[in-house]
From TrEMBL:
Alphabetized PANTHER family for the sequence: ENHANCER OF RUDIMENTARY ERH, ENHANCER OF RUDIMENTARY HOMOLOG
Protein name: Protein enhancer of rudimentary
Gene3D superfamilies membership: Enhancer of rudimentary
Keywords associated with the record: Cell cycle, Pyrimidine biosynthesis
InterPro entries in alphabetical order: EHR_sf (IPR035912), ERH (IPR000781)
Taxonomic source organism: Drosophila busckii (Fruit fly)
Domain of life: Eukaryota
Lineage: Eukaryota, Metazoa, Ecdysozoa, Arthropoda, Hexapoda
Keyword Cell cycle: yes
Annotated function: Acts as an enhancer of the rudimentary gene. Has a role in pyrimidine biosynthesis and the cell cycle.
UniProt keyword Lipid metabolism present: no
Listed GO biological process terms: pyrimidine nucleotide biosynthetic process
Pfam families associated with the record: ER (PF01133)
Family per record: Belongs to the E(R) family.
Length: 104
């Protein structure tokens, strides 16, 4: 488990910048999914069940001005930066594992 900091800037103004921290990369990727789910709930307040596919999630990520992760590297005691494409790859792997897990 590597401590991970998610940096997000949804709008063009610097004041929209925010961050969240997580105990692991997977927790962080779940957090990105939750951000998108909250976005969908705000846009569809009267819809009781929200569903989406991975391409819609990736389109949402692409609309963000900036999203990146800083992942703690124990060997160097530093944080390594990762971009949107890396985040999308990690989300894809996470959701694929969830889809094929026996508990899914």
């Amino acid at each position: 488990m590597s401590h991970t900091i998610l940096l997000v800037q949804p709008g063009p103004r610097p004041e929209t910048r925010t961050y969240c921290d997580y105990e692991s990369v997977n927790e962080c990727m779940e957090g990105v999914c939750k951000i998108y789910e909250e976005h969908l709930k705000r846009r569809n307040p009267n819809t009781p069940t929200i569903t989406y596919d991975i391409s819609q999630l990736f389109d949402f990520i692409d609309t963000l001005i900036d999203i990146s992760c800083l992942v703690y590297q124990k060997s160097t005691n530093t944080y390594a930066p990762y971009n949107k494409d890396w985040i999308k790859e990690k989300i894809y792997v996470l959701l694929r594992q969830a889809a094929f897990s026996p508990n899914a």
